[in-house]
Design goal:
By secondary structure, the protein is mostly helical. The chain has a domain of about 35 residues. Helices cover about 50% and strands about 0% of the residues. The protein is built from 6 helices and no strands.
């Protein structure tokens, strides 16, 4: 005899009421009744969460890259807190605009 079978033999069995299908217990509950059309008329709509969470889609999508920067550059932009990567991007956008203006 395996060990688990021996353990199961030592446990007391369930009563007939405990073995009854759960639906019988649910039906017997005092708070459970079938809803009527009057009940459904009182139902308030539940606000539905938008499917997409987070920031809105940008008109221009950014490209994810791995970039190695000098520690001093990173510290400079991180000093002002959150959004430091966006500030680096803005600085580079300004640099590119100046370069294009100089070459035109």
């Amino acid at each position: 005899m395996n060990r688990n079978a021996k353990i199961r033999e030592d446990l007391p069995g369930n009563s007939a009421a405990e073995e009854a299908p759960p639906s019988a217990a649910i039906e017997a509950g005092p708070d459970n009744r079938e809803l009527t059309a009057k009940d459904f008329a009182k139902v308030m709509p539940f606000p539905v969460m938008p499917k997409r969470r987070g920031r809105p889609k940008a008109a221009k999508h950014k490209i994810s890259v791995t970039l190695r920067l000098d520690p001093g550059v990173v510290e400079h932009f991180r000093r002002d807190g959150r959004g430091w990567q966006t500030r680096i991007n803005d600085a580079l956008v300004g640099y590119v605009a100046n370069q294009q203006r100089d070459h035109d």
